[in-house]
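This section describes the prediction task in plain terms. A model, or a person checking by hand, is given the sequence of a single protein chain and must write out its three-dimensional structure as a string of C-alpha cells. No templates, partner chains or ligands are provided. The sample shown here is typical of the held-out split.
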Amino acid sequence: MRSVESQEELIDVSRLNDDFCDCPDSGVDETASNACDKGRFYCKSKFAIIKYISSFKVNDGYCDCCDCSDEFEREGVDRCLEEFKRYVEAEVNNLRYVRRVASVGRGRQGEAHHGEVQQE
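The expected answer:
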C-alpha cells in the first residue's frame, strides 16, 4: 500500500490498522482504528445506505454506525432499520416538495383552473 503523502513509501500490510498513523495526510492506513484524524471508516449497512464516519470515532465508546460496527469491543442495538426508515421518509418528503414546486410552476404557465377550459 502507498501513502498518499509519499507515493514512494510503501507501507507493509502489517502496519495497517496497527494504531499508528503512517499516512497522516489521508489516514488511509488506519481506517479501522482511531489513530488518524483524517481517516474514514465505512459503516456496514443492511440497506445499502453508504455512510462513512471519521476514523477518530472508531472505538470511542459511542456507536456512530447504525449497527455499532465502529465499536469492536461492544455490542450495540441495531438501529439500521430505524435509520433506513428516516432516510426513506426524508427522500419521500423531498420528492413531494419537488412535485409541489413543479405543479405550482406549471399552474402559472397557462393551465386551466377551477374547471375552466383552456383555449388556444
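For orientation: The CA atoms of residues 35 and 53 lie 14 Å apart.
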